[in-house]
Every structure is written in structure tokens, then in C-alpha cells.
Amino acid sequence: MILRSAVLAVLAATAACGAPSVQSSPAAPAITVAAASDLRVAFEELGEQLHAETGLEVTFSFGSSGQLREQILNGAPFDVFASANVEFVDDVISAGCGDPATKTDYAFGRLVLWTPPGGVAPSTVADLADPSYRRIAIANPDHAPYGKAAEQALARAGVLDAVGGRLVFGENIADTLRIAQSGNADVGLVARSLTIGDGRDHALVPENLHDPLRQALVVTATGDRRAPARAFAAFVGSDAGRRIMARYGFALPGEREDPR
Amino acid sequence: MTTAVAVDATITTGPFTVEARFEAGPGITALFGPSGAGKSVTLAAIAGLLRPAAGWVAIDGEVVADTTRAVHVPTQQRRLGMVFQHAALLTHRSPLDNVGLAVRSGPSASRRQEARRWLDRVHAGHLAASRTATLSGGEQQRVALARALAGGPRLLLLDEPFSALDQPTRRNLRHLVRDLVDEQELAALVVTHDLADITAFADHVVLYEPGRTLGTHAVRRGHADDVAALLGLAP
Amino acid sequence: MDDWFPLWLSVRVAFGATVIAGGAGIGFAYVLAKGRFRGRGLLEALVTLPIVLPPTVLGYYLLTNLGVNSPVGRAWEGLVGEPLVFTPTAAVIAASVSALPFVVRTARAAIEGVDGRLEAAARVAGHPEWRVAALVTLPVAARGLTAGVALGFARALGDFGATVMVAGNIPGRTQTMPIAVYDAVQAGDGSTARTGSLLLVGVAVVVLLAVTQLSARER
Fold it and tell me: What is residue A203's three-state secondary structure?
């Protein structure tokens, strides 16, 4: 932590992040949003709805929150950073790349135990100790918030040592789901938001097994794209935005009970 | 006899070394000896394509290489003409272009004219616009000869120029080279291991044995027994 | 597949990279084939490095050396007004570096394969070295050089690792075809992934066939 703060202080001192001045034509305002992989389905719907209502063109670059943070610190021309983890948003802000006034908690992520159709579904995290789960996919805990949460859940359920050798890491949470879906893992600890569309029930990992996946966003735009970027951020927190987020299984700030 | 070229050098390439020592005047001097004796290597050193390990080379009285004084005149400035065993023509250029590229000065129209003149002189004018790759071996060597002469060389170097050709073609080309040397009052060194070359058109012969030169001898044209005597083949 | 931007971008990036890697690669190949100087081995190792380095390492070094905190990145931003990284230009640079060794190695073999007597004849005729190269060496090696450049194009078209690190994955701006395929896989969009992959395989096969043809007719 100390090291990281030091690094960030240096980055901030050297005005790390770039000031992209690509002029979007005023007729069709457009912004680019860097978003955590768990937001892919929900944000795409959200972007379409916003476009329909306001004409704002939103392009998404999805990746693991840690990777997106690195890209922003290296000058990537993103206008909004929607992280799966508030700490990465704080990093971006302390590096001088985000407007602190726009920092907003917009959702809490939830983990589910995803099994392929026909697989034996575990009902609790502790069930994963069963050696018949030969491969267990989680996101890389080093830079993906869902991976860190999955690791905590395994530890708090007391099975981390038992499953240690059977873990496989996805680059981000979407990649993790892909590993399980392609049959390369028997079970995956993945974001509920990505699995809601498959119409099947997957065991929810209790919130108390991991630190809250407090997802926050910040506006990183400069110049004339600051206004449309703020409009996007506001839309995520609006009633319409919250309805979409809730539909995809996110818990929302201010109503933190298990929504099922 | 004025000296067209003089060599006293040790020439090394890879593991191979030749001690070459001879002088040659105007006319045709054959470098004769077994394959691998170092004849072609000597030619390369005279052309400046190789640097002697020790010794010197002089062309027309000008020292073009001298290891003791660190003299090495680049090939480009030695004013030579050279013909290789396989003509070494550029197949992506016409015969006329191949010759034209060797004409040293003048605007391109006059260079073409000069090239044309040389092609005619070697009886290859009709090939000027042919596809170079389709020419026969003898035709290619005529073009190569025109190229070697077009730059106005002070010394002509011919490296086994006929060895890839059939006998009738060899005879024709020998006559051509002889005529050209006489007409232009040139000095020419011809590397060969064909006795017939010597008896047919050489004025002098430098004998080689593997790794060194043995000496220079005059030959009377048409007297095969001169050469045979030199080589100890005669009765 | 309903979005043709990645293919269009990939083709433009690959053409740009081919021009850069082709020019620089043939230059390096010539120097390596003809030059006798100290540090030649080191130069050869350096231009070959992108073949053996993990693309991520390559991408990391490019990001550090072209990024907003680097002298190059700052100079670029001062000149152009926007950062160099995470732009199509950065994708061109990444693809150029990845393609360079393929051009150099093929072109160098072609240049070394030129009959030395052709060059000797030009020298004897009085042409300085640069004209020997322009009139003889490079035209005679043309097939091999073309094969090298084609190989470089194919490599540039397919670059993923280095490109995604310095240019990012920004749809409509820096998302090239290989990155679009990756993104489609992540999104579970099998049809886009399949179409994109098939396109890339198709182009690669066509280019490699052409390279084989060029190399075969060399002899």
C-alpha cells in the first residue's frame, strides 16, 4: 500500500494521464467508457437506452479494472472509468486523472457459483472442496476485483487450501466465465451480472464471505467531453440506470439486501 | 614493352593463399594452370575485389594496392573491364541496358548510343532489346564483352570467359577478343585452363602451379609446340 | 459480423506498418548482409528480438517508451496535441516492431543470395556502392524482398499482444481485427469471433501462398 501510494504520488507529480483532445463533432457527441468486464451486458443496454434518449454515442472498452486503471494512468483517452473496485477509482483520482467530484458508487457486485448445464451444481462455496470439481475458474486476484473477492470467499469458507491446486485464472471476469462455459473448468466463481441472461439459477455467494465489491466510477474526460461524460455518469445513477443495473443482478447503493 | 599490369603479392582468401608475381604488357596474357591454382584470385586482387595480404599491384604504372603504404584504390576507380565465366548480366535489364550501365559519362541518350555501338561491335546489335535471360551462352558473353569495353578500360580482365561454351562458339569469341584487343590497343589478362586458348590467341602466358606463379613466357600464335615445350609435354 | 471497422482499421494499420517495417527492414537487412562492423551481432540480435520476446513484454517496453511519461510520448504530445499511446498510430508502431524481424530475416537471405559477380561487374564498371545496391543488389533480390515485406504485412495484420497494450481495446478507434476477435470471445459473441477469425486465417493463407510462390520462383 505504501509503495503503491508512493508510485501514484510520483505519477501524479509528473501529470501522468494524457489530455486527449480528439474533437468529437458537436452534432453527434461521443464518449468512450472504460468499464469492468462484469458490466458488459448491463452497460451495453444502458448505453443503447441513453443513446435513444439523448443521441449520445457511447463506446465501451471492457477489461479487468486493474488493466483499465493502468491504461488510464498511461494516457488512454477514456472519458469515464467504471471500475469493479473503488480502490482503482481512488488510484486514478490521486494520479490526477479523474475528477474527484464525480466519484460515485453505483453498484455492488455479486458472485455466483456457475456450473455448465448438466454439471453438478455446488450449493455453497465449501462444496468446492469436493475433488470432483477438478478445475475451478476464478478471475486473476492480482488485478481483477472479482478474483480477489473469489479468493476471499474460498478462504473464509475454509477451502482455499483444499482447492488451491485446482484454481485456474481468467484475465478478467468475462474471461473467467468463458473458461467455464467452454468446459475448461467444472465450476466458475463469476459475476452474477454476466449470468443473469442464461435463465438458470446459480448459487449466490453470500456477501459476508468477501469484502463488498463496491463498484465506483469517475469522470476522466477533459475539455468538451466532460459534459457528455457527466451525463453518462448521471444516467448510471438515475432511476432508469438503476433499474437496468438491478435487472442484471447488481445490488444497488442504498438498498443493500440480497435481492433474491 | 610498356607494363600494363604488374603484381607482386600474397593473396589470401579463406584458407587459400597464392603468391603471384608477374608483369604483363599490351596484348593478351593468359594465366594458365590447374583449377584452384589461384588464377581467378589474382584477377580479383588486380580488380580490387580482394585486398592482398601482402605486396602490391600496379596498373599502367599506377600503384593501386600496396600493403606497406596502406594504398587501396577502390575497384570503381581502377578503370577496368571484366568478363566472368558466366556472363553475370542483369536479367531484369535488356542487353542494351546492361552495356549502357557501364558507359561512364554523358547524358543518357549518348550513353545509349555508345552502348549500341559496342553491341554492334561485338556483333550483338540485334540482341539489344531481347530478354537477357533467353540469350545463349555465347550471346551473353558477347554482351558481357561489350559491357567490359564500354567503360573505356585501361586493362581487360577475362575470368575463364569461354569455359562454359561449346567449341565453335569459343573459336568465334577468341577471334573477337583478339580483334578487339588489337584494334583498341588493349592489355588483357585471360584466366584459362584450356591449352587451345593459349595457342589460338595469347601473346604471353603466366604459368601457375597450385599456390604460386612460375614465370612469364612469350608464345608465338599458332605454335602449339611452344606451349607444349613450356609444360614439358613436347618430345 | 455487422461492424467492419476492425477489419478496415487492421488493413490500414497493417499497410502503415508494412511501409515502416518494409523500409527499415530492408535497410537493416542490407546493412547486416553487407556491413562488416563492430556491433553487427548486437544489431542483429536487437532486430530479431520481437520474434522471441513475449508480445506482452514488447508491449510493455513500447508503452513505457512511448507513453505519456516518456520523452518520446511527451515530444509527440507537444507536437500533435494528443498522446501517442492508445491511438491508431500506436497500433501502427506496435505492428511495425512486430513485423520488422520477419522482413529483416527474409530480405537479408535474399540479399545474401545475390550473385557477388553481378555486384562485382557493377563495381568494375565504376558504380559507387549506393548505385550497386540500387541497380543490382536490390532489383536482383526483389522477389525475396517482396516475400519478406508480404510476410511482414501478414504479421502486422495479426498482431495482438503488443497492439492491445499500447493501443488498447477501444472499439471504433483502436480495436483491430485480432482484438475484436478477442473481445467477441470475451463477450460470448461466437459469430463475430468465427467470422473475424476466418477472415484473418484467409488473409494469412493467401499471403503465405504468395510468399511461397515468390520464394519458389527465386531459384
Answer: strand
Between C154 and B235, name the one with better pLDDT.
C154
Residue indicated by cell numbers 478474483: A147
Mutation for testing the A interface, residue in C61, C65, C69 having most A CBs under 10 Å: C69
Contact C120 B49 (CB under 8 A): yes
For residue C207, CA distances in Å to A32, B150, B153, C98, C156 come to 35, 43, 47, 17, 12
C82 and A178 within 8 Å at the Cβ level: the answer is no
Q: Give pTM, 2 decimals.
A: 0.82
Q: Which cell numbers in the block locate residue A118?
A: 448438466
Range(s) of the domain holding residue B65: 5-230
Q: What is the dihedral of CA A2, A8, A10, A14, to 10 degrees?
A: -170
Q: What is the CATH number of the domain that holds B169?
A: 3.40.50.300
Q: Does B235 map to a domain?
A: no
Bigger pLDDT: C27 vs B233: C27
If you ran DSSP here, which 8-state letter would residue C149 be given? H
Residue A100 per-residue DSSP state: G
- In chain A, residues with a C-beta closer than 8 Å to the C-beta of C188 are 174, 177-178, 181
Residue B160, in any domain of the structure: yes
What's the CA gap between C83 and C106, in Å, rounded?
A: 34
* Residue C86: closest C-alpha in chain A: A76
Question: Using only C-alpha atoms, what is the Rg of chain A?
Answer: 19
Structural domains in chain C, CATH included, are 5-218 (1.10.3720.10)
Q: Three-class SS of residue A135?
A: coil
Q: Indicate yes or no: CB of C124 within 8 angstroms of CB of B75.
A: yes
Are B and C neighbours with ≥3 CB pairs closer than 8 A? yes
Residues of chain A above pLDDT 90, percent: 68
Predicted confidence at residue C67, as pLDDT, reads: 87
Helix and strand numbers (H, E) in chain A are 10, 10
Per-residue model confidence as pLDDT tens digits over B61-99: 999 999 999 999 999 999 999 999 888 999 999 999 999
Residue C145 dihedral angles phi and psi, to the nearest 5°: -65, -40
Find out whether A104 and A236 touch, Cβ atoms under 8 Å.
Answer: yes
Cell numbers for C18, please give them: 508494412
The ipTM value here is: 0.89
Q: How many domains does chain B have?
A: 1
